[in-house]
Amino acid sequence: MVQPIHVIGGGLAGTEAAWQIAIAGVPVILHEMRPQKVSPAHHSEELAELVCSNSFGAQSSDRAAGLLHAELRQLDSIVIAKADEHSVPAGGALAVDRGKFSHDLTKTLAEHPLIELRRGEVEQIPPGIVVLATGPLTSPQLAEDLQRFTGMEYLSFFDAASPIVVGESINRDLAFLASRYDKGDADYLNCPMDREQYLHFRQELCIAEQAELKDFERETAKFFEACLPIEELAQRGEDTMRYGPLKPVGLFDARKGDFRAPENKSRRPYAVVQLRQEDKAGQLWNMVGFQTNLRWGEQKRIFQMIPGLENAEFVRLGVMHRNTFINAPQLLQPSLQFKHHATVLAAGQIIGTEGYTAASAGGWLAGTNAARLALGKQPLTLPATTMMGALFEFISSAAPKHFQPMPPNFGILPPLPEKIKGKQERYAAYRDRALADLANWTANLSPTLAGIAG
What we know:
About 30% of the residues lie in helices and about 15% in strands. With about 450 residues, it is α+β, with helices and mostly antiparallel strands. The chain has 2 domains: about 5-155 and about 325-445, 3-Layer(bba) Sandwich (FAD/NAD(P)-binding domain); about 160-320, Elongation Factor Tu (Ef-tu), domain 3, CATH 2.40.30. The chain has a 6-stranded mixed beta sheet with strand order 6-2-1-7-17-16, covered by helices on one side. β1, α1 and β2 form a beta-alpha-beta unit. α1 packs parallel to α11, α2 packs parallel to α11 (about 355-375) and α2 runs parallel beside α13.
């Protein structure tokens, strides 16, 4: 009889891994410490809770995140299937109603006869085949055991989540719906600022009181550039926010005419704060790019200075927490097995991939390979020409000394056989090659990837 596989962590990676193991016909115990032990970022006990944004990134398959979505759809990812099912309007992005998304995944996994959902903290790596998907908020006891297991300490950075605003509290006389450059539907609420408003807003951000970090966090913290707190951006220069999340170009208020027309130059916003829809009903809106470590009272005071948000009601204020990850190039194979402990695999942000979709992709491969090990099959590695394959090849072979978390991007893919000048055309060619190679790869592994395939 096949012994159950232990999956530790009920985030996106752990949820995907447990599902892939179960549909391969192998029993799995999915460990999730919540609600017995809470984390500094989670708000519920649901599996696959999205603690930062509700967006999985660009939807189009000629974008890096979108290509990862497309690959996971080919591979029957449960996470992407549920994301598609519970998607909400977000222009060109795949965003979800996070409550319904997480609840559905929790219910679906709990009802599978081969999945045992076990609540409670795991303090040591259990014997047998194990998938570590504990994420960036691994509990101290398990983190200590993992350091013993690997002989290495974690690397760390800080991640921050944006506030969420009640839609009815947004002043629609000032805020307007639009998409950038008329691409996609007008799915973002835009709060325009003139120069005086922007400069005053930036000044207040620069002098605002931040939440205090613990001594060990202050010593080891380094911000991840893709998720910088808004106050950090403000301190980097007068125009940094205007070239980042408050970029005022490509937008216009349909009620007032096209700001982009030369005759309307004087009426163009100096900066624009954008909000993205959180739920299907449009009752909740996420402040795009407003990850923050400000004290909650300061957040309310300063963010209500934004035109349109003067009466904003916040259902969640921004939080910041320490993220940890292992030095994957020294420890992992492209199959996501540990180099010196082949029956232990890892997935998610703990291995140094960045983003929801990358976490799900790692869960798919780690779960698939864990099931194959249990069934006496050889583990798989994905084609390097796919976004998934390139990402796991990168994190397992990068320079260990300078290793940092890596999001999906076209720069890690092998070069195309012929040079293509246009960026969009080049990205489309990468996509076409990746999806064709993945289709051939899966066809050669039929009838099932994880189970009885040779």
